[in-house]
Specification:
It contains 8 helices and 18 strands. Helices cover 25% and strands 33% of the residues. It is globular, with a radius of gyration of 24 Å. Helix 2 crosses helix 3 and helix 2 runs parallel beside helix 4. The protein has a 6-stranded mixed β-sheet, with helices on both faces. A hairpin with a 2-residue loop joins strand 4 and strand 5. It has 2 domains: 229 residues, Rossmann fold, CATH 3.40.50; 95 residues, Nucleic acid-binding proteins (OB fold (Dihydrolipoamide Acetyltransferase, E2P), Beta Barrel).
Length: 338
C-alpha cells in the first residue's frame, strides 16, 4: 500500500504558521496535485512528506506507517525537483543508476532497472550522452528515470515542468500522466499552474496561506468551487466577481460569480425571465486565436467575457447572463451559498 495520510500537520517558521493543521488522505495509486500561489505552503507539505522538513505538529503516515521520525532515505519515496539536479560529468546511464550504485545494488540488477526505465521514458538511444547534450525535456526524463529505478511507494514532484518552454510542458504533462498509468503507484505533484492541475490530477488540493481551501476532482473544483478563492484561482480568465445588486435586487448584499465563457452577447429584442441583460462600455479586447476576450466594468467590478474571434465589437457590449450560471458567495466570508 502506498497511501499517504496527513493528520493535523502543522509547520511553524520563526513563530509564523506556514501550514495550519492540515488533514489530507491520499489514496494508493492516486495522482494528486497540490496547487496554489507562491508561498501557499504546497512545497513545504511535499518536503515534510519527504522528510526534508521537520513537522511542528501532527503526524504523517506512508503506507500506514508513521514516518515523523524516519529519515528521508528510509521513507521509500522518490523526489523529482524543479531543477534536474543531474551530474554533468556523468552519462545518462550513470545518472539514472547513481542512487542504486550508492545503495550497492547488484550490477546486473542496476543494468536491468536502467534499461527498463530508459525504455519507459524513451531514453535508450541517449544512455551514453552527457546532460549538456540533451534538451530540457530529455533532462527531466532522466531525472524521472533516476526516481523510477528505485521503485518507490510514492513519487513526489515539485514543479518539475517549470523550467521548460510552453510546448515542452504540454508534452511532458502527457508523458508524466502516462508514466503514472504504467507504474501504478502514488504521485503527489506540486504546481502553481492551474492548467497542469486540471489536466493531470485525479484530485486537486487547492491551498491558500497554508490552509486547504478545497479537495476534489478537477471537474468538481471547476464547476462547484466552495469559495471565492477557489473560484477565482481556477479558470482563465478568472471568474468575474460582481456586487450582486449590480445584477438584480435578488442578489443584493452577496457576491455574484460568473465565468467569462458564460457571459454571452444578446440581441435587444430577445426576452427571457431567467436571463439578466446589461450593457457595458468596452475597455479593451484581446484576440486569442479562435477566441476574443472583452474587458469591461459592471459597476465598480472589472469583468471579462470570452467570445468567438469573429464577434463584432464596438465601444459597448450587450451582455447576457443566465441565472443558472451565477454562483453566489457570502460577501464577508467568501463561502459559496448556492
Amino acid at each position: 500500500m502506498s497511501n499517504v495520510v496527513l493528520n493535523g500537520v502543522r509547520k511553524i517558521y520563526d513563530k509564523k504558521v506556514v501550514i495550519d493543521n492540515i488533514d489530507l488522505e491520499i489514496k494508493d495509486k492516486e495522482f494528486i496535485v497540490l496547487v496554489g500561489a507562491s508561498g501557499c505552503g504546497k512545497s513545504t507539505i511535499l518536503r515534510m512528506i519527504a522528510g526534508l522538513e521537520d513537522i511542528t505538529g501532527g503526524e504523517i503516515l506512508i503506507g500506514d506507517k508513521k514516518v515523523n521520525n524516519i529519515p528521508p532515505k528510509d521513507r521509500d519515496i522518490a523526489f523529482v525537483f524543479q531543477s534536474y539536479a543531474l551530474y554533468p560529468h556523468m552519462t545518462v546511464k550513470e545518472n539514472i543508476a547513481f542512487g542504486l550504485k550508492m545503495r550497492k545494488v547488484d550490477k546486473n540488477e542496476i543494468e536491468k532497472k536502467v534499461k527498463e526505465a530508459a525504455e519507459i521514458l524513451d531514453l535508450t538511444e541517449y544512455l551514453d550522452r552527457k546532460p549538456k547534450q540533451l534538451s530540457g525535456g530529455q533532462r527531466q526524463r532522466v531525472a524521472l528515470g533516476r526516481a523510477i529505478v528505485r521503485n518507490p511507494k510514492v513519487f513526489l514532484m515539485d514543479e518539475p515542468l517549470s523550467n521548460l518552454d510552453a510546448k515542452l510542458r504540454v508534452q511532458m504533462r502527457s508523458e508524466i500522466k502516462k508514466l503514472h498509468e504504467k507504474l501504478q503507484t502514488t504521485f503527489i505533484y506540486v504546481t502553481h499552474d492551474q492548467t497542469e492541475a486540471l489536466t493531470m490530477g485525479d484530485r486537486i488540493v487547492v491551498l491558500d496561506k497554508g490552509v486547504i481551501q478545497q479537495v476534489a476532482s478537477p471537474d468538481e473544483i471547476y464547476n462547484n468551487p466552495q469559495n471565492t478563492f477557489v473560484a477565482g484561482f481556477v479558470g482563465s480568465p478568472q471568474m468575474n466577481f460582481i456586487d450582486g445588486e449590480n445584477l438584480s435586487p435578488d442578489y443584493a448584499g452577496k457576491t455574484a460569480g460568473i465565468r467569462p465563457e458564460k457571459m454571452t452577447s444578446y440581441l435587444f429584442d430577445s426576452s427571457d425571465a431567467d436571463t439578466i441583460k446589461l450593457t457595458a462600455d468596452v475597455d479593451m479586447t484581446e484576440l486569442l486565436g479562435s477566441e476574443k476576450i472583452i474587458y469591461f466594468n459592471i459597476g465598480q467590478n472589472k469583468c471579462s467575457a470570452k467570445l468567438p474571434a469573429d464577434f463584432s465589437i464596438d465601444k459597448t457590449i450587450n451582455i447576457s447572463i443566465k441565472r443558472q450560471d451565477i454562483y453566489l458567495f457570502d460577501r464577508e466570508t467568501g463561502k459559496r451559498i448556492n
